[in-house]
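[step 3/7] fold_predict: job queued, chain A
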Amino acid sequence: MSDIERESVSFIADFNRVKAEISKVIVGNEQIIDGVLICLLAGGHALLEGVPGLGKTLLVRTLSQSVSLTFSRVQFTPDLMPADITGTNILSETATGQKEFKFQAGPVFANIVLADEINRATPKTQSAMLEAMQEHAVTVAGIQHRLKQPFLVLATQNPIEMEGTYPLPEAQLDRFLYKLLVKSPTFEDLATIIDRTTGVPQQEIEAVIDGETILKMRALAREVPMAPSVREFAIRVVLATQPDSPFAPNSVKQFVRFGSSPRGAQAIVTTAKIKALLSGRFNVALEDIASVAVPALRHRLILNFEGQAEAIEPDTLIEDIIKKSQAETAPKVGV
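[step 4/7] structure written:
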């Protein structure tokens, strides 16, 4: 077995170990767990959307317990200030009695940060959080403070209650690698949830990997090669989100105002490489691109007035894009 094969086997084993620990607490929502872990390994952030009580916060807390990483939670409210997130300079006294300003780090200085109900904070506070997400650093009083690595922000928002909220602008939504939709549990899942939470105490979560291992897994994922034909397919999918593109299906031309930015292509390629590794392959296939397109692009489509009036779902449009792109690419690459 080659070194690459051994690393790939270890990659899958570590991923499954973390997933198994999370599954001790989280029932169902396997795609959501996979999506969060993929974001962690891809070095990107995730936006979790769902009604209250579906376990979004519990999922993030359980993830932090299953890996040896620091964790912090920020409950976003309208009166939250940027300094409450990033930190600020405070006046302190040294051992010799002198006064000096000392930086007091905020909750963003953790490996995993839960931004709970991020759409309840004002745009000023949201921008401070999203700047830290993008730059992986905080600047206070002209001094830059680097954030710990690995660094992952998992933000939640409630799609139903819009009163008193400040929806994230499209440019800020674009900074999230994935948008994951948390669904209500099935009959069987709800029965399991009741048994676990109203019976004997739950199993304790063990930390099965550390930050150094995660960084190595990230590096391995970036080494996964991609054939030119597969890269072309990924580009076609992203360009097809633009209504004026020749690759766009009729549904996109009719209902979409603006499509994905290049960040969408980066998100697809980066996470498709992780999907390939988890499938036991050290090369990206067309099915890997198709499997990650929806969570990577659903928050990057801006509907026009007609699309909003018809309540068109971005997921449906992306599925149309994938079908059209597969049909056009199939004769060339022999899918």
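[step 5/7] annotate
The chain has two domains: 3-82+109-213, 224-333.
The mean pLDDT is 88.
exit 0
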